[in-house]
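subagent[fold] <- orchestrator: predict structure for attached chain, return tokens only, no commentary.
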Amino acid sequence: MMDWTDRHCRVFHRQMTRRAMLYTEMVTAPAIVHGPKPRLLDFSPQEHPVALQLGGSDPRELAEAVRIANAWGYDEINLNCGCPSDRVQSGCFGAVLMERPQLVADCVRAMQSETDTPVTVKCRIGVDEQDPETVLPAFIETLTQAGVRHIIVHARKAWLQGLSPKENREIPPLDHDIVVHMKQRFPGLTICINGGITSLAQAKALLDRGLDGVMLGRAAYHDPANTLIGADALWGSDFAPDPLAVVDAMRPYIADHLARGGRLHQITRHMLGLFQGKPGARGWRRVLSVEATRDGAGLDVIERALAELQARAA
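subagent[fold] -> orchestrator:
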């Protein structure tokens, strides 16, 4: 979800669920060590619980990034071993690390040495010609020996050669069953599943099979109301605001952002799918897409988008 789940997106998603863990877009350890730390690590207190997702393969550099990030108070630190993009392959991190389990274990130990915050790992079921039935349990076993207790598995292989990142999300077949089998094989671990999950009903069905959690990515971004509103019922909560209440909840945050010199579209670009599938949704998207990018755009643009939504819905 690089370039998608920034801090504004996470605040928006938090208005729809109080309990779900929100994950940052992947931030590389070198960027944190050498780059603009507040820009990369700042987040709003209302985002909690929120996890920092790191990319990297140098144990010392990852440890330093974690040491720096401690001051921000994230609820979880996640090492990404699942992203298949060219950028991460060239840097020897992301999904390519599925081929180097001992290096991942070294990275995790180094990260854990710098924090009391839980360190988790996100991985694929395998890469290229690897046999997931052999590689995945061995990978998980190596991580458990390094002290990892929480693993998120994207239930597809990653093809590092020949497929684009987009194709890697669509072409390799999903294998949810193997992730369920990993939970059965490692009952003491927290094992969550990712990949191809597009509804709360589907998430509930996977939880009913014994998995500890379900991670949603693009479905939650493109159709947030239908995937996030009502999710808290999985924790026994009745928190389920309607989409109009979500817009109301965002107004103070947007006003503060604008007062600090921010631009409207930096937030509203994440809100385009809020009324997905509802009458008037196209008008909502059109007004925000066109008008929120203009200089000086303010909360009045949201009012016009709502008026368009309601006029089309009438």
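orchestrator: received. Logging for downstream: The chain has two domains: 7-217, 243-313. The mean pLDDT is 93.
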